[in-house]
Design a protein that fits this description.
heterodimer; A: mainly alpha; Helix Hairpins; 2 domains; two-stranded antiparallel sheet; 66% helix; elongated; B: mainly alpha; two-stranded antiparallel ribbon; 58% helix; globular
Amino acid sequence: MDRVHANLGDLEQFRGLLSSGGATVQEIREGLRASLGRMSEDWRDAEYDRFVDAFLNTESALGAFVDSSETYSRYLQRLIQHLEDYLSTTLRSDSATSGTAFRVSADWHRELVRRDVQQVVGTLGPIVPQLYSEWSSLTPAERLEKLQALQSRLAVSQSRKSTPVVSSRMGFSVLGVYDGRRIRINEDHLASPERFWQILDTLIHEDRHAYQHWSIITPGFHQDPGQVRAWADNWANYLDPTEVSFRRYRSQPLEDDALWFAESVVLGIIGRKHVG
Amino acid sequence: MSDRAPSLPPPEEIMKRLRDDLGYSKQGAEAVIAELATCRDEVKKAFEDWWVDGRLDTLEVEGWTAQKLSAHLGCLAPAAILNLDWLLTDPVAARAALLRGFDRIVPGKAGMESQELN
């Protein structure tokens, strides 16, 4: 089974090595360049000219490495920061768990759904960086408008009707609700500027429920009829998390699919945001 | 905690109380009964304590009691007790999930027909 792992400890360690390695190479490069300049006063022959040519070629390659190490070190720093932000509001186990010790995995064996994930990452990926950069300066009402725009774009890209996105009061542990007609987002969470990744995860999760619902009422829409039957049966016998254990709630077909789907999409967007 | 093996009430009694007193859905009550049957003994004992005395603080796992879980999640007592079993068997995954919170679907009686076509 293929698995995708984002081990923040490994990422941080590599970023540190890359950064210090780049700095060390730069230091050596500058030292050699200065020494070479001084050496030219004492070493004047054809061999010196050949050496200088060879040195400058190598030094140019070293310069490219230093530049790229700085670029990728910054890239990894941002990637780590975004992953930590996302994980801190979605998957963090508790305050005793180190920020670099997370191991996030998503099963990629669901080949049919993987294409859905890639499609959604492709649809939202170009939009999310701008939204992320402006999120903290938006009012809750403006954030809701942006979420509605994301949902509508998603729905259009999948040839289904859009679903109204609204906010409402709910218990603090409740992230969102899909009621068959609307997606509801916890208004306290929406008002909190640092919850961007969690809100995005919630929107994609609830929209996945809207997708599941659309699949149930639209025969042939979803490509796996067996999965649609499981969703329909679960829809009629949904296990509410206030009645059963979280283990049981999360393993039912509708939630298992939506949890995996949203997590995969958000991690895909975070990766694309820095690669693209 | 005493050494005697916990004795769960008969399933039909659990079903009746969950449905009549706590407003459980039929499938929710059935799921609770099924999960209880496979729980660790200390969790069954915690359920018995709640069933007999209404106590939710007799078992603590990973810093959580059923009372704290119920307050944190707004969940019903049997669900809170069952979450202790998950904390016992898979504490890392359970803690992460419980702290994350949850969403829910509210299918409603007309859920299948109510997708808004705007």
